[in-house]
Amino acid sequence: MTWYFKALFAALLIAASSVSVAKTPAAVVRQLTLQADAWDKAIVRKDKAAIANNMAADFRQIDAAGDIETKASFLESVLDEKLRIDPYTVEDFEVRVYGNVALLSGRTRMTGVYDGKPFKTHYRYIDIYVRKAGVWRVASVQITKLKD
User: Fold this and answer.
1) Which residue positions does the secretion signal occupy (predicted)?
2) What is the per-residue pLDDT across 55-69, written as a single tens digit (0 to 9) for each?
3) Do the beta carbons of residue 126 and residue 104 sit within 8 Å?
4) Do residues 122 and 89 lie in contact, with contact meaning Cβ atoms separated by under 8 Å?
5) Distance CA 142, CA 83 (A)
6) CB atoms within 10 A of CB 54
7) Which of 11, 16, 52, 92 is deepest in the core (most CB within 10 A)?
8) Of 31, 27, 47, which Cα lies nearest the Cα of 39?
9) Under a CB-based contact definition with an 8 Å cutoff, are residues 126 and 47 in contact?
C-alpha cells in the first residue's frame, strides 16, 4: 500500500471516530440524566441498594456546613428513620462530560420532616460522576445552601 492510501485510510479512520465521538456525549448525557433522577427517587423512597449501587466505593460529600461524609455516613443519614424527604425536582440541571468524568449540577428545593419537625431547604449542588469499567457512579457531591 502506498503512502497515499495509508494517509487516506488514516484520515477515514479519524473521520469515522470523530463521528461516533460526536454522537456519544448526547447518549451519555441522557444516561446520566436518567441515572441522577433515579438516584434522587431512590433517596426519597429510601431504597438502600439503589442508592448505594449508584455510589463509588470511595464516595465523598461535602455538605452545606463544609463537613465531609463518606459513603457509609451518607447512607446512614439518608436512611435515618427520623428523616422523610418529600419528592422534589431539580432546577437548572446541567450535565458536562469530560471523557470518563461528568459534572452534574443544579438547584433543589427540598422539603420534608426530620424528627417530627418540618424542614425546607434550597441548595445548589454538583455531583461528580466517574466511569470505571463502563459504569458511571457518583464519586463526589458538594452542596451549597441558598437563600430562599
Assistant:
1) 1-22
2) 999 999 999 999 999
3) yes
4) no
5) 20
6) 21
7) 52
8) 47
9) no
Give me the chain's average pLDDT, please.
88
Report, as an integer, the average pLDDT of 42-51: 98
Neighbours of 74 (CB within 10 A): 21
User: Torsion angle of alpha carbons 112, 114, 119, 121, nearest 10°?
Assistant: -80
Cell numbers linked to 19: 463521528
pLDDT for 138 beyond 70: yes
Scan for cell 427540598, then name that residue. 110
Q: Which class would CATH give 3-145?
A: alpha beta
The CA-to-CA distance between both ends of the chain, in Å, stands at 68
- CA 4 and chain centroid, separation: 46
> 3-state class of 114 per DSSP?
strand
pTM of this structure: 0.82
Point out which residues pair with 145 in neighbouring strands.
123
The set of cell numbers assigned to 147 is 437563600
Q: What is d(CA 94, CA 145) in angstroms, rounded to the nearest whole number? A: 18
C-alpha R_g of the chain: 20
Q: Give the number of other Cβ atoms within 10 Å of residue 32's Cβ.
A: 21
